[in-house]
Design goal:
Elements (H helix, E strand, L loop, with lengths): L2 H5 L2 E6 L3 H15 L3 E6 L2 H9 L5 E5 L8 H10 L5 E5 L4 H9 L4 E4 L5 H26 L9 H18 L2 E10 L1 H8 L1 H16 L7 E6 L2 E9 L3 H15 L2 E3 L2 E3 L2 E9 L6 H17 L4 E4 L4 H18 L5 E10 L5 E12 L3 E3 L1 H11 L2 H21 L7 E4 L2 H6 L2 H12 L6 E5 L1 H5 L2 H13 L3 E7 L6 H6 L4 E4 L1 H4 L6 H16 L3 E5 L4 H9 L4 E3 L9 H17 L3 E4 L2 E4 L1
Parallel strand pairs: 1-2, 1-3, 3-4, 4-5, 11-12, 14-16, 16-17, 17-18, 18-19, 19-20, 20-21
Antiparallel strand pairs: 6-8, 6-11, 7-8, 9-10, 13-14, 13-21, 14-15, 22-23
Helix pairs in contact: 2-6, 3-4, 8-9, 11-12, 12-13, 14-16, 16-18
Bound molecules: ligand C2E and magnesium ion (2 copies).
Length: 587
């Protein structure tokens, strides 16, 4: 006990219906303690509870059997009102079993009436206070986050369990919010851990302003906060709270003499609407939060079924992608493009693959959309370009016939980086002429920011690079831009090719695209060619080139080297047959 505590007198709430017994205790304590113990005496539990509700007692000393309460119940009622104030029981019963039950009910100490002097009673009271303090301290450490003072994961779980049980009984709703500070990691990395910690406690303070005292705010770790809102009628209140949070967090945080802006992403799920247990609700709220992040952060979102796996898978991909370049997890596969007249190799398309250490090869359909959304497509795309050109250099230097390499470039790359300069630099570095390169862009590139796009495409043309429109027919297919932009090739989308010649519509569209391309004196290539019938149809309609599994799927560098060696042999032997993957394809 500290010096000030020792100097201050201990205030005891004394509940005892028997006046004689009460007088005896009072006299004994006065004799041994003097003014160091101040007793306030009441006669029944009701008066005791009222007194306890006011402030100022350090400990309760109570008789077990009162006019309005008997036995363990007396202790339970007292503890329920003020669980931070220790209760010492005073009774005639001296029996082991009863004592244990009392201690379980929350009593700190047990004294047998009539036994012991004033010193003994005073010591018991002081020990009870000390022990309660230690107990509370332990509970605080076990249940609260020391940095922010908010509930920690353990307490959060308890509170949520409790809230769900309560809501079930009352038929009310509970909302669970999961909140994470966008860019927290950046603050931590640039301003240091101390600033990071300061940011977390300031954020915790602001969050506390947005909810009622009875609501729970917890920090589960890092910058992950949760909020439990209870006794709700529906979704309106969590929506209001979420807006309030966005509002208070929009103010700058003063850290290290700087104004730092962080924004929250908030996921919300409702009990019992979305799920009926703690784990399920947490997962939902997480998924909703990831959705907010995927949509550009700084907002809130309610959970909807189906959000879950998708959002989680996506975030996993994004975090994996961030490290994939340094770890060298990308590789290129190459798919031949062949002439439908001669069967000769006209070029090849570089198709990126992601070799995840734990998940095997991931196809671009899974990660390219995520890379585009997150901006990671910029470094990935640059890697593809440089790597592809470096490989071209190796093939050409060993005398293998590679007419041209096609690289896919998406709209985001055009928007966010200077594609023409990047290409010029990559060509310079590889020492290759621009004629060896083709870029495949989609129609969406042409629809955006037209003047800048025209300029970029023009510069690419000046470098000698050719330009193909990928997946042609699936976008806007505006004929205007075919005249306006310097485009060399149309690639008929797989979806039209797959059903020719049987599907009449697809056959008509394919024929129309071929005619259009030739009218404008462009080359046309069909992608996704898998059957001989398709080849026959395409040849009859004068399509120039084809790409697809029938000739070869995308293959590794080594396989492509073998393919090129055979191609060199064929060139030496003369035209006509194209040999693919052991089989022969007559064209
Ligand atoms: P895409 O540019 O249209 O590429 C053609 C896709 O069709 C490739 O899928 C290829 O494996 C597949 N394919 C080829 N022949 C056949 C066939 O006969 N039948 C069928 N069903 N499919 C065939 P992949 O490699 O999964 O690539 C998918 C898409 O990912 C590509 O479509 C492209 O848009 C994108 N992508 C791939 N690599 C890159 C890259 O380096 N950068 C960018 N920005 N996008 C890339
Ligand atoms: Mg392509
Ligand atoms: Mg395509």
């Amino acid at each position: 006990m500290s010096a000030t505590d020792a100097a201050r007198s201990i205030r005891v709430l004394f509940i005892e219906d028997d006046d004689d017994a009460a007088r005896l205790v009072r006299e004994r304590l006065a004799a041994s303690e003097g003014a160091r113990l101040v007793l306030h005496h009441v006669h029944d539990l009701k008066a005791g509870l009222i007194a306890l509700n006011g402030d100022g007692y350090d400990v309760v000393l109570t008789d077990l059997n009162l006019p309005d309460s008997r036995g363990v119940r007396t202790v339970k009622r007292l503890v329920a009102v003020r669980k931070e104030i220790p209760v010492v029981v005073f009774s005639a019963v001296d029996e082991e079993r009863a004592i244990l039950e009392l201690l379980h009910s929350g009593a700190q100490e047990y004294l047998v009436k009539g036994k012991g002097d004033g010193h003994g009673v005073a010591r018991a009271l002081r020990q009870a206070i000390e022990r309660k303090r230690a107990e509370l301290n332990l509970q605080r450490l076990a249940h609260y986050d020391s940095l922010t003072g908010l509930a920690n994961r353990t307490l959060f779980h308890n509170r949520l369990e409790y809230a769900l049980a309560n809501a079930t009984r009352r038929q009310s709703c509970v909302a669970l919010m999961v909140l994470d500070l966008d860019r927290f990691k950046a603050v931590n990395d640039t301003l240091g851990h101390q600033a990071g910690d300061r940011l977390l406690s300031l954020a915790a303070e602001r969050l506390s302003r947005c909810v009622r005292d009875s609501d729970t705010i917890a920090r589960l770790g890092g910058d992950e906060f949760t909020i439990i809102l209870e006794n709700l009628g529906g979704a309106e209140e969590p929506r209001i709270v979420a807006r309030k949070i966005l509002d208070v967090m929009a103010q700058p945080f003063a850290l290290e003499g700087q104004d730092v802006y962080v924004t929250p992403s908030i996921g919300i799920t409702l009990f019992p609407h979305d799920d009926d247990n703690v784990d399920g609700l947490l997962k939902n709220a997480d998924a909703a939060m990831y959705q907010v992040k995927a949509n550009g952060r700084n907002g809130y979102q309610f959970f909807t079924a189906g959000m879950n796996e998708r959002a989680v898978a996506r975030i996993r991909i994004e975090s994996g992608l961030r490290q994939a370049i340094e770890r060298g997890e990308f590789l290129l596969h190459y798919q031949p493009k062949v002439s439908l007249q001669s069967g000769r190799l006209q070029g090849m398309e570089a198709l990126v693959r992601w070799q995840r250490p734990d998940a095997g090869i991931v196809s671009p359909g899974h990660f390219i959309p995520v890379a585009e959304d997150s901006g990671l497509i910029i470094p990935i795309g640059e890697w593809v370009l440089r790597k592809g050109l470096a490989q071209m250099r190796i093939w050409l230097d060993s005398g293998l016939p590679v007419p041209r390499l096609a690289v896919n470039i998406c709209a985001r790359q055009f928007r966010q980086c200077d594609v023409a300069s990047m290409v010029a630099d990559a060509l310079r570095q590889s020492g290759l002429d621009g004629n060896y390169l083709e870029v495949e862009i989609t129609e969406s590139v042409l629809m955006e920011d037209t003047d800048a796009t025209v300029a970029t495409l023009q510069r690419l043309k000046e470098l000698g690079v050719s330009i193909a429109i990928d997946d042609f027919g699936t976008g806007y297919s505006s004929l205007n831009y075919l005249k306006r932009f310097p485009i060399d090739t149309l690639k008929i989308d797989r979806s039209f090719v797959s059903d020719i010649p049987y599907d009449q519509d697809d056959a008509v569209i394919t024929r129309a695209i071929i005619g259009l391309a030739h009218n404008l004196r462009r080359t046309v290539i069909a992608e996704g060619v898998e059957t001989h019938e398709q080849v026959r149809f395409l040849r009859e309609n004068h399509c120039d080139e084809a790409q697809g599994y029938l000739f070869s799927g995308p293959i590794s560098t080594m396989q492509m080297t073998g393919y090129l060696e055979r191609e060199r042999g064929r060139l030496a032997a003369g035209p006509v047959l194209s040999i693919v993957g052991g089989g022969q394809v007559a064209v």
